[in-house]
Amino acid sequence: MSIDNLTKKAKTAYQAFQDMSISKEAYFHFLQDIDVKYKQGGSASIAENLQLEKLLGVHDKNVIAFNTAMTVVEDIEERHALIKMMS
């Protein structure tokens, strides 16, 4: 099944999944950069800690949006198709 064949509710859930994946990647990438800095004897600045907090907040909101969007997709076959597309 392609995204074009999904209902509006399922497309919303798929977009929420995409948003969640992007915010997760942004958070972990930034965290990884800070980890490299720690390993080289440095420490995170206040600005870096604030940015990390901001990225985590965005990701948390995206996780909530995804979970909410998935609960609206009630058709079992469509849920399975979504899960297959996300894996």
Coarse shape: elongated
Give the helix level as a range of percent: over 70%
The largest pleated sheet is described as: none
Give the radius of gyration: 17 Å
Run of helices and strands: HHH
Average of pLDDT: 94
**What's the number of helices?**
3
Number of strands: 0
In oligomeric terms, what are we looking at?
Answer: single chain
What does the model show?
With 87 residues, the chain is mostly helical. It has one domain. Helices cover 80% and strands 0% of the residues. It is built from 3 helices and no strands. α1 runs antiparallel to α2 and α1 packs parallel to α3. The protein is elongated and about 50 Å long. The two termini are 13 Å apart. The mean pLDDT is 94.
What keywords describe this structure?
87 residues, 3 helices
Quick take:
By secondary structure, the chain is mainly alpha-helical. It has three helices and no strands.
How is the topology of this model organized?
Elements: H1 8-39, H2 46-72, H3 76-86
